[in-house]
Amino acid sequence: MTIDITLLGTGSPIPAPDRAGPSTLISAEGEHFLVDAGRGVLMRMAAAGVGAPQLSAVLLTHLHSDHITDLNDVITTRWVMTFEPTPLTIVGPV
């Protein structure tokens, strides 16, 4: 089994024009897992060839703003691109 790990963004809470917020895409056997949803994640996912509807789950490491800034965009875009109410598993701290 091949597991691909793509760093989508490694930025900080301070905006920078050449860096996206923290997020990582893990892909294996047709499944795609997003770890954190920092600023710009959807554009970086598109560049990696994965759309929001293809996500199997989102994993949040912690709830700092720079790690969850675009979570709502991921959820909304997933729905807008398919108009299907397919549940998206989101795992994170309580």
In short, what is this structure?
This protein is α/β, with parallel strands linked by helices and 94 residues long. Helices cover 24% and strands 26% of the residues.
Give a description of the structure.
The protein has 94 residues and is an alpha/beta fold. It has a single domain, classed as Ribonuclease Z/Hydroxyacylglutathione hydrolase-like (Metallo-beta-lactamase, Chain A, 4-Layer Sandwich), CATH 3.60.15. The protein is 24% helix and 26% strand. It contains 3 helices and 5 strands. It has a 5-stranded mixed sheet. Helix 1 links the parallel strand 3 and strand 4 (57-59). The longest helix has 12 residues, at 71-82. It is globular, with a radius of gyration of 13 Å. The relative contact order is 0.20.
- Assign the CATH class: Alpha Beta
Q: What is the element string, with H for helices and E for strands?
A: EEEHEHHE
Q: CATH superfamily, called what?
A: Ribonuclease Z/Hydroxyacylglutathione hydrolase-like
Low-pLDDT segments: none
CATH overall fold name: Metallo-beta-lactamase, Chain A
Total strands: 5
Supply the CATH architecture. Answer: 4-Layer Sandwich
Radius of gyration from CA coordinates: 13 Å
Q: Could you report the average pLDDT, rounded to the nearest whole number?
A: 95
Percentage of residues assigned to helices: 10-25%
Number of domains: 1
Helical element count? 3
- Give the DSSP E fraction (strand runs of 2 or more residues): 25-35%
Shape: globular
Task: List the main descriptive attributes of the protein structure presented here.
94 residues; globular; single chain; five-stranded mixed beta sheet; alpha/beta
